[in-house]
Specification:
By secondary structure, this protein is α/β, with parallel strands linked by helices. Helices cover 35% and strands 22% of the residues. This is UPF0033 domain-containing protein.
Length: 206
Amino acid sequence: MEKRINAVGKQCPMPVILAKKALEESPEGSTVIVTVDNDIAVQNLGKLALQKGYGFLSKELNTNLFEVSMTAGRTEANKLSENPQVQDMEVPAEFSDIVVVLSSDKMGEGDEVLGKMLMKGFVFALTQLEQKPDTVLLFNNGAKLSCEGADTLNDLKTLEAGGSEILTCGTCLNHYGLEEQLAVGEVTNMYMIAETMMQAGKIIKP
């Protein structure tokens, strides 16, 4: 069985997400062929294959045109990781939460347009992960991401619908004059932000 995906022109992380979904829905031994227009996308698909144990083959069809073949199914290493005897030690429940911290409406330093595009991609990617964050904390410029008009709003709503707690700093909303524009989640305070981060099993900050 073979399935083809045209991911030409699609921004990161869409090629990876489309390929991952197709492979998960395909029976073992099936091939998913993804067409992309840049080498970075090829590398990202290769990392997905390595992480999940999929077969992987890529070839350059033309300038800025690549074809990536991935085969569904897991390697022995992946199967071993599913054995309870080789799982990591269990983390105490009170310190097992995954907390995502968004303190800016941009991801990284440098070009502002690129930074906002990367942040949009990051928040969307969170909705596609098998393991969702337990809590998303938004403060400083990051508070703008949960307000009306933000291009991250729908993805944050998707996370909330899936069980993630979305908490935005009230002081930050007041500072930016956005207290009436919060469109997802709840208002929080610095004590709750500090407590949530202190009790987190893992903190993710892009």
